[in-house]
Predict the 3D structure of the following.
Amino acid sequence: MRKIRDDIYWTGYIDWDLRNFHGYSTPAGSTYNAYLIMDEKPTLIDTVKHYGYDEMLWRIKQIIDPAKIQYIISNHTEMDHSGTIGALLKICPNAQIVCSPKGAEGLKRHFLNSGHSDIEWKFKVVNTGDELDIGKRKLKFLLMPMVHWPDSMATYSPSDQILFPNDAFGQHYASHQRYVDEVGIEVALKEAAKYYANIVMPYGAQVLKVLEAVSTLTIDMICPSHGLIWRSAEDIAQIIVHYKKWAAYESNKQVVIVYDTMWHSTEKMAMKLYQFLDQAQVPVKLVNLKISDYSEAVTDIMNSKVVILGSAILNNHVLPSVGGFLTYLKGLKPKNRFGFTFGSYGWSKVGFKDLESAMEESGIEKIAEGQYMQFVPSAEELASLEQFIGPIKKALAI
Ligand code: FEO
């Protein structure tokens, strides 16, 4: 355990081995953060993924007999945070589960309807503005639907000025350090950006509402349920500023070219576009989906105003790597992005419809017609790609 404030302890689980979180690559692992508040009514905020139960319990037992826990606050049903509530209830017979209305529905679907629990679950359902008196503290709740699921909520301790916002402001990052200032703001922001792009990006409107509500609170510390805690005033200001930017779908004046290639022809087109942009001093990044995974590519798209998507054609469709990526992108819906499509084909261009329709469905506005070249592009065809530098610079307003 780690004491983060008088009578408040981190009792989570560090997932050093995690490398894939339902498709999101996590080379730095992750943590599932649980927080124990030792007040007259001991209260645990969130739990951990099922395989972290023993470690969480070991940490809790250093502080208290778990049987004395009176409340288990479930800010979010997803099983990385609520996966051990069932096990914990068996040794916390007095504990009530505090959650949002949707949280109660979700927990019942996960634990009770499946017959996995033979003990009584005592729910205490809360809504925005409700208070929970745990002794010296009166905890408050803020429902934040879709950040990340309909059930998500934050818990706030006014007397500590600590916000426990669950997934919001989190990062997939395993570390023995608990605070952003111990690891460095650059690392934390990089991981927070990847987390936002892959988990929260479709819900910008909802995030803006949460930020508005959060702006009315005095916050001395943000304790998310993944990764590092934000505790310095500068770091808290930084993550709030970045969340505002991401939620408003703002981006940087840069280009990302995301593609895959079969016999290097699409790669030649991607490289030529890259060279023209580089010569024009336009910041540009190449992402080859054969090498990079979806979650990295999506993070680059969140950071880039112009998105250029390319693929070779295989059996009248885009390459499977690109097809899977387009499915992922359509779900995440980056807004306020501009771009066009390109690629190489053998005898039919019909497969490029996959690219064009996915770009439209993702909300990326077309700034030029798709550029498709047969078999191996000639030097003249490659040179023709220079005509797109003007429209790209216009879209970037540079
Ligand atoms: Fe970290 Fe939506 O769960």
The mean pLDDT is 96. Residues 76, 78, 80-81, 148-149, 167, 225-226 surround MU-OXO-diiron (CB under 6 Å). The first strand starts at residue 2 and ends at 5.
